[in-house]
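step 4 of 6: structure.
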Amino acid sequence: MKRNHSSFLTKLALTTAVLAGTFAQLPSAASAAEASETPVWSREDVQSFDLTEENTAPNIDSFTDVAPDYWVWDTWPLRDRDGSIAKINGYYVTFALTATKDYTWSGRHDHAVIRYFYSKNGKDWTMGEVPYNKEKALGFRQWAGSAMMEKDGTIHLFYTASGRKDEGPTFEQRLAKTTFEMDAKGNSGFTVSNNGEHEILAEADGTYYETQEQKTGNIIYSFRDPWFFQDPKTGEEYIIFEGNSGGDDKTLEPQHLGDVDEVVPEGAEDYNGNIGIAKATDDDLSEFELMAPLLEANGVNQQLERPHIVTKGNDYYLFTISHQFTFAPGIDGPDGLYGFNADSLFGDYQPMNDTGLVVANPENDPFQAYSWAVLPHGQVISFVNEFHDGEGNFQQGGSFAPTLRINLKGDTSEIKNVMREGEIHG
Ligand code: FRU
């Protein structure tokens, strides 16, 4: 994010010979200017991460399984149009990726379906059904998304159509949506009705957003995880999503590196995650226009997953989750929640806390939780991933993790509190 290009260019001049493998050519002034319009998370930003009291979650030693027969991971509560947490007949409703335990822990991604959960107090959750007809849903399986309820009760479920119905678990990803209504039946759960069509909202265009064909490297490309967002300043509506930078030229540009004293390892250019945005152009949220990404991490990280925005006063916070294994060669970053701060939706996002790191797992259990999502009031939900119990035995999770509460102040954050597993409030 640092825009101090001149010292970098001096260094580049000195090391051009060594870097020749990585940089086919120096970027022209025009392409650098063009590219610098998109804020970047640079290699300079991520040179060293520190686990501190402010960013490290407490250990998870055990958990209560919210749905013992199912793996449960990425989770998102039903929201109102303005992003506040919604309720239906006094119940909170949350959606999550699920798969029965007939599938293996790692096989769950190939068979994901979205189920809903409901709770009166936002703490004790009961699992409901798949709220759509699986045969009509798009994709071989459905990956993460978001859910918004209109005033008339229509729920828009945004999701990722992952693969194609007749192809098995392949990796093409498209942003999709369906609609339905939900009603509480006294104390015995919910009914789902008025199911609408399933429709594709956006596909990778190959210019802003990499297509599957353009992908290089060993990690899957991304065009997934649509998150609905209404900009409180303008009322305009968007979906924010996980992408990769489009095009066939993967040459890293000065702003992707920043002021770093390193020889960028070969292959770093294959890691080109970005945070995408598409603008709604009709009232029923069926038509979206792809826009230039909000942030790019070329040469830094392949996956900026489940991106979402929280506003507080004049501050816009763009959050995303990422993995240790998706950082580019030469960068040692933890599985974590990362955040970027700006003063408008299309602002010049700067990494929070200097590096971007907002929440990490404790050092002795670096994969204990994942898929953090920041909700109003600084509530941060996630799921229990892989951890070591009180006796030091390895355990697979697949259930709601304790909610954290963080404090956001300018471009800094601090973990303040730990709440119950899956706990949310309005
Ligand atoms: C994050 C994630 C999402 C995706 C889902 C697939 O945990 O990788 O980006 O939608 O998991 O299971």
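step 5 of 6: annotate
 - The chain has a mean pLDDT of 92.
 - The domain at 8-421 is CATH 2.115.10.20 (Tachylectin-2; Chain A).
step 6 of 6: archive
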